[in-house]
Amino acid sequence: MKAGGVAGGSSLNNSSAPTSSYAPGSSLPLGASFNQSAHPTACLFHILFKGVAFTVYMLGSKTMEGIMVTVLCILLLAADFWVVKNVTGRLLVGLRWWNKVDPVTGATSWIFESAAPTSPDGTNATTNSFDSKFFWGVLYITPILWALCFMSAILWLRFNCFVTLAIALVLSFSNVYGYYKCSADQRAKLNDMFNAGAEMGMRTMIRNGVFGRLGGMFSGGNAQQQGAAAPQVQPGTFA
């Protein structure tokens, strides 16, 4: 089944609804440079709104009213969510996620797409290594930073920041989850990472004899319970 395409050449493949990708070239303004990037402007905007929103949150309370900080942060976070979801994901890693509503039943379908390994003309359409690392690194670090801010707000009882931080966490985690579902490679990498961490933890516990100590504790406790004399109950009456 084929879905409608957007401006561009290569098509996007998905198990449910393959669609097209959009990968125009871009040049970086303002004298900044990502020399190894195939899409430097996309790299810039991938981090621009995040950085400005984080800066406004950290420093804005000292220079402006709290409600103004909240409004500015929400606008910047919304802009960042839209840019990452609709632009930088397609340009930097060839992924896109979106939803469509059935006009008849009203049911919502979520579609997760990944770019074809080759373009229609047979040329290699593999994503740039720098772009891929930059995209995933920034994508994963963003919710971690907002989560740290959220925990800090809880510790310092900054209840006026909860709305901003909750929106930041929801939007950043939404993009992480959406692109995680799009990328089979990222799913495999995260599964390998979790498996390697679990295996390393098991080896460490075995090397340190944790299981032996736990077994000794339980067996020792059972022996003490078995060795303890059962109380003798004598029939009688209380005066």
Written description of the protein model:
- Helix 1 runs parallel beside helix 3 (129-155) and helix 2 (66-93) runs parallel beside helix 4.
- The protein starts with 10 loop residues before the first strand and ends in a 12-residue tail after the last helix.
- A hairpin with a 5-residue loop joins strand 1 and strand 2 (19-20).
- The chain has a four-stranded antiparallel beta sheet with strand order 2-1-4-3.
- It has helices at 40-63, 66-93, 129-155, 162-182, 184-207, 210-227; strands at 11-13, 19-20, 95-101, 108-115.
- Helix content is 59%, strand content 8%.
- The chain is globular.
- It contains six helices and four strands, in the order ββααββαααα.
- The protein is of the alpha+beta class.
Brief synopsis:
The chain has 239 residues and is an alpha+beta fold. It has helices spanning 40-63, 66-93, 129-155, 162-182, 184-207, 210-227; strands at residues 11-13, 19-20, 95-101, 108-115.
